[in-house]
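Need the bound structure for iron/sulfur cluster, inputs here:
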Amino acid sequence: MVEIEVDEDACVGCGSCVEDCPNDVYELDEEKGKTKVVKEEDCMACLSCHEICPSQAMEHREIHVAKRLYIDRKVSNVLDKMI
Ligand code: SF4
Ligand code: SF4
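Answer from helper R.:
Posting the output first, comments after.
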């Protein structure tokens, strides 16, 4: 599974990653004014959040594993529909 770490010192709380993530992995912590990871298991390692974050505040580890899981899930969904 992919591991995501957000550097709270770097995060400026703009919310771009929250809006941009297709799988709602992030939520904005209103109290802290920082983003937080709430559904790490749904990350498909598209790295869209890296592109959009103005402070490069997040780090993803084990990306190759997440990609593999995502591809397997997609293939399995397609196969289910064919059978
Ligand atoms: S890599 Fe993609 S799916 Fe994962 S947290 Fe970032 S935007 Fe969401
Ligand atoms: S895009 Fe970056 S700076 Fe903006 S809320 Fe997300 S982690 Fe923080």
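Comments: The first helix runs from residue 16 to 20. Residues 13 and 19 are 12 Å apart (CA to CA).
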